[in-house]
Amino acid sequence: MKLRFSSLTLKQTFLVSITVFCFAVALLFIEFISVVHTEKRHLKQQGETLIHTLEQSAKASSLNDNTLLAQQLLKQSFDLPWIQSVSIELRETGRIFSANKPLDAETGIWHDLAQWLFQNQQHSTRLLYRDNSQPFARLNLHYDLKKISQTLQRHFTRTFIFSLIGTLVLTVLLTCVFHLFLTKPMLILSQAIDKITPDTPKDNLLPRIPFHNNNELSRVLTKFNQILIQFDMAQLKLRKMATKDPLTSLPNRVLLLETINLSIQRSSQQKRSFALFYIDLDRFKNINDSLGHQLGDRYLLRIARVLKRVVGEKGTVARLGGDEFAIIANDPQTLPQAGEFAQTLIKEIKKPLFLNEHKLHPNASVGIALYPDDGHNADDLIRHAEIAMYSAKKQGLGNWAFFNKKMTEKAIAHLRIEANLYNAIRNDNLSLFFQPKIELATGKMKGAEALIRWHQGDKVISPGEFIPVAEESGLIVTLGKWVINKTCETLRKWCDEFNQVPSIAINIAAKHFIDPKFVEQLKSCVSSFHLDPSLIEIEITESSFIHDIQLAIAVIEQLRKSGFKVSIDDFGTGYSSLSYLKVLPINTLKIDRAFVEGLPENDAIASTIVMLGQQMDLEIVAEGIDEAKQLKWLQAHGCALGQGYLFSRPLPQEEFENQYLEPEQTVLEIE
């Protein structure tokens, strides 16, 4: 298998390690050969020293008997540790005196190596002289290879350990040095090069490298940075000429088209929309003709600054030419929001301008095109926004219009409803109606649902008209707080005046449900009216939990622990699955009226929901019971509760109290 390295540092470390290891092995081999030669010389010197010592002892001995002298010399030489065996043969008598140490049956690589290396030095033979005439004996010495092998092993082990430690230290040291002076600078340069952008290369010049201030690398860096600076200057000039308006320095049509295309890509990926505003200054030709082009240019510069201030960081302002500007705004996601933004633009543009001694009153017409409703490419969006601008001009100066007239009318209606709804909340022009929940088996009232109504003079506005507007504008949270407070106030009144107080179900919008302050505000309101939390049931739709099931579970668990009941409204009409239903700690399922109105003929979904609720031990409430045949089917299939026009329409509070609540009985004092 071919070895691969992921970086130059690893390659460098590997090569350094191999080189140092080979060098250490060579040194170890040389050291070992040196030790062997040293041991051979030492062994030879010891033998010669022993012979000389024995000869001196023989000459100095007073013994005339060579036999006794031989025994004495034998003992003297045999006591040496490096002697394995010794024998002395007398020349006169031929008698041999010998002594042998026990021979160890030692085997192993070091013993075999010692035998091979010292095969010519394992024994030696010398003649012993008592005087300078004839030798009197022959001395045979055999050396102990065990001692020699132990010496070799000890030298080799010590040398190997020191070599290994030196190898590791040297490898680490060289690796660090090479990394510091070679690979780290290259890594720093690589990272710096990655940060260079074609648009602004000068903003990411290559940094100076430590320890390379005056060498070949520093000169390369200097030359490269000079090239980047020159390239940046040329790029800036070309881009400014190609994409910037020379008068206002705003993006021109070319850059606007690029920006729109980028916005289309981003919005397509994120499933979002954006708005394109086409702005034409009214009566600009009169200013140019009467005051001159110089003041006309200053006028355009002032308008450009106004537009940039209004848009801020939330969009892009471009000049299309002459007195026409365009704005790409990312924030307006809906028609009312786009219309409100257009109104803000016109309001800011209309503020008087002072140029020299002239007081000018600017005005503008604005056309709006929305992606993707009004176009899927930049050219279509610009063209449609321009058409809408001309449509706005036909309405008079200082107007705005959507590309589609029907969209314009709808947006204006939404804005009007939003403004009126805000005033209605502030002026308390809202009220709660109550529709009873009936126990289908007995016909008794077991609860009620609070439904908001908006009174505008003698006219009652349908929730279907203002609830969607409230959700789009964010007023739905304020509206929800009003309903909660009004419900608690009503329950407090009923607790004080009636014996039987039903629980009330409150519809909570998804945006309000996921508000971090929702549960605490609900608990605070209930506590301030000294109510039992079980009297309030929170109804949520499937949109409240479909995007973040874990958050929904956490909120519902807080509600349940605080004593509130929780139900899922309009079950079956959204995207919820049984897996969600199994983990949500709810109390009640409400069958949507769309599945009730088809009973008993189309009962597949309704029967499934009833059966599902019974299996999961949930209370089932059917909405929209308007006919007796629907009631009979629901009773037959075990649906517990129901509400609908068959029992009662939603009633004003006073009428509901008179029809369904009993007056509190007087308690007599018994003496």
Automatic annotation (TrEMBL):
Organism name: Parashewanella curva
GGDEF domain segment(s): 272-405
Record key words, sorted: Membrane, Transmembrane, Transmembrane helix
InterPro entries: Biofilm_reg_signaling (IPR052155), EAL_dom (IPR001633), EAL_sf (IPR035919), GGDEF_dom (IPR000160), Nucleotide_cyclase (IPR029787), Rev_trsase/Diguanyl_cyclase (IPR043128)
PROSITE patterns in UniProt: EAL (PS50883), GGDEF (PS50887)
Coiled-coil portions: none
Keyword Transferase: no
Pfam families for this protein: EAL (PF00563), GGDEF (PF00990)
TM region positions: 12-36, 160-182
Matches recorded under SUPFAM superfamilies: EAL domain-like, Nucleotide cyclase
All copies of domain EAL, residue ranges: 414-664
Protein name: EAL domain-containing protein
